[in-house]
Amino acid sequence: MELIDVQTLADVPAPVIRVGAVTFDEADIARETPFHPAATLAEAQLQAARALVVRELLRQRATALGLPLQAADDDHTLAALLERELQVPEPDEAACRRFFEHNRSRFAEPLRLRVRHILLAAAPDDARARDRQYRLGQKLLRQLNEAPERFTELALRHSVCPSKADGGELGWLAPGQTVPELDRALRHLPLGLHERPLASRYGWHLIAVDERQEERPLPYEQVAERVRHNLREQATRRALRHYLLALEEEIGVEGLKLDADAEGALMR
Question: pLDDT tens, 124-146?
C-alpha cells in the first residue's frame, strides 16, 4: 500500500486521498486512526486511511445501485450490498476433504500441559537482577530435587505470580496461552521438575510439568463443519478482495493503492 507522505504536504489544507469525487484529508485520517490500533502510529494511520477508502468505495457503489444510505445504519446497508454483490461458492465435500487432508494439524486437539511454576522476577534489561534471580532459582531447584513436596511452600515464599496462592498451579496450558518464549520451551519439556530456570521477559521460571496430553488427530467427521467454515471464510475473503480492487479501478482512488489485504479494512 502506498500513501502520500503527509509530512511532505505544505501548510495548505490539500486533500491526502481522493475516492471518486470525495476527498479525505489529514484530519479525517486522524479521526479514524484510534479505531485501528497497531504497532506504530504510521501503521495505524495506513490502516485508517485504507478503511476510509474501502467504506467510501462501498458507499458510492451502494448509491449507484439506489440503496438507501443513512449514517445510523451504514453498516447494515453495506452488509446488504455485499450480500447482494459477492458471489461466494459453497465448498463441496471433495474440496473439504482435500483441505482437511492437507491441514490435519489445524483440526487436531492441541498439546496440553498441566504446569506449576515459581516466577522469580527480573526485568529484561536488569542484568544484575537476572543474574541474582537465576542463582536463586538454581538454589531453589536443588531444594526441590531433595524435597519435591516443598514446591507449594517455595512458591508462596518466592514467586511473584498470582498463582503462588495456589502453590504455583497454572492449570492446563495449550500452545499460545503464555508468553512466546516460555510457550516454545514448554512444548519440549518432559514430565517432572525441569532441571534449570527458564527465561522470559518477566524473569526466571521454575517449571514442573505434572501431566502431558499430546496432540491428538481428530477424524474428518468430527471437524467437518469447522473445515467447511474455514473454506467458506477463505472464499469470502478472496471474493471481497477482488470486488474491492474492481471498485478501486472503476471509481478511481488517488493517494492510496489498496493491497492484497484490502478486505481487512472492513474489520474495525
Answer: 999 999 999 999 999 999 999 99
C-alpha angle with apex 236: 267 to 39, nearest 5 degrees? 30
Question: pTM here?
Answer: 0.62
Q: How many residues does the structure list for the chain?
A: 268
Kindly report the CATH class assigned to 112-213.
Answer: alpha beta
Q: What is the pLDDT of residues 73-95, one digit of tens each?
A: 578 888 889 989 998 989 999 99
Handedness of CA 221, 222, 227, 232 (dihedral sign): positive
- 10-12-16 Cα angle (round to 5): 75
Candidates 36, 14, 39, 10; CA nearest to 26 is 14
For the chain, domain boundaries = 6-91+225-266, 112-213
